[in-house]
Amino acid sequence: MINRSPYPILHLIWEESCRHDRIPARNIALLEKIGRDKMQALLQACFDEGIQY
């Protein structure tokens, strides 16, 4: 699995408890928990007009 975003992203990590070597495993676990349909909906929402951030 490649741990890359389809778009440039800046990650600001402020917690000392966040270990660099564990980030990929946490990302994979989170994506598996969220599921494909929810992730596709979140990505599509990034392109929809009228998004409130």
Instruction: Work out the strand percent.
Output: under 5%
Overall, the morphology is globular
Largest sheet, in brief, is: none
Tally of separate helices:
2
Q: Radius of gyration, Cα only, in angstroms?
A: 13 Å
Q: What's the helical proportion of residues?
A: 40-55%
Distance between the termini: 30 Å
How many β-strand runs?
0
Task: Write down the overall mean pLDDT.
Answer: 77
Which structural class is indicated by helix and strand composition? mainly alpha
Low-confidence stretches: none
Order of helices and strands: HH
Protein name: DUF1415 domain-containing protein
Pfam families: DUF1415 (PF07209)
What this model shows, in words?
- This protein has helices at 23-34, 36-47.
- The protein is an all-alpha fold.
- It has a domain at 24-52.
- The mean pLDDT is 77.
List its traits.
single chain, about 55 residues, mainly alpha, 2 helices
Give the secondary structure arrangement, pairings included.
Layout: H1 23-34, H2 36-47
Short description:
By secondary structure, the chain is mostly helical.
